[in-house]
Amino acid sequence: MTQIQPRTVLVAGSANLDFVVRASHVPAPGETVLGREFRTFPGGKGANQAVACARAGGTATQMLLALGQDDFARPIEASLHDAGVLLHTVRDAALPTGTAFICLSDDAENAITVAPGANMALRAEHLPALDGIGWLLLQLETPLDTVTAYARAARAAGVKVALNAAPAQPLPDALLALLDMLIVNEGELAVVAGNPPDLATGLARVDVPCVIVTLGARGCLARVDGQILLQPAFRIEPLDTTAAGDTFCGALIASLARNSRLQDALLMASAASALTCTRLGAQSSIPTFSEVAALLADRTRRPGDDAHAALAAWCAL
In what residue span(s) does the Carbohydrate kinase PfkB domain sit (predicted)? Predict the structure, then answer.
């Protein structure tokens, strides 16, 4: 029997330098909080997902990104290169490299403000050739019309298209019609689906063949071909949840590019995301493929039947 070869994943999206300060709690509006440690980390949803796809997912990965002509671009490029990502870089002389300002609390919650900078310079004509590409993975930290143009080009080339609809915003039907997969958290589903009263209604309202909803520490669920799949989260002691969702997205698409079943891809992505939460930073926290494989191989650490039952009861689908 001839084995189907894995296909390359192309991630098109944002790249930021994250400025992270740790504090006892995330400040409320008008509140000043005295922070502690300060560090910078390479980040951005697109770049995080590309690193996760290559490092945690162990899959050939390319990335289309836009950077400024400044020193902030250097650690981002170095991180992507170290992960083995092939870069298609757009340089913008007028805009700075994107940045994000993150307050990380002691209970692993965060508050993030993004200054997109050069990320807004990505245009339709920047999309590289799609020869050998199996999946195109997109997010919403770049212009919406550019995202739509990339999805349209991929669909025309027979490339599967996945969109992580974050940050949340309403999506035009024209874009949804181009997607093979939509990945959202609960808040993003509410925006995309028009504030549904429950998960079941939200899933039914989104006209995409496969919709995946991440549920934080509970796990995730997927609707595909009218079937519901559930995947409880791995139990961990979280240190920093930054990039957990991005790791999930990248590892998931990497697994699918290796021709895994969706249920197996959800398990793999959940394991990668769990490990990410136990480390500081965005790309610096993303585990290797061997670390994910080791967690999956230890069946004593996988979610048990009680976790499946709890997730099913909470979703009430």
Answer: 8-288
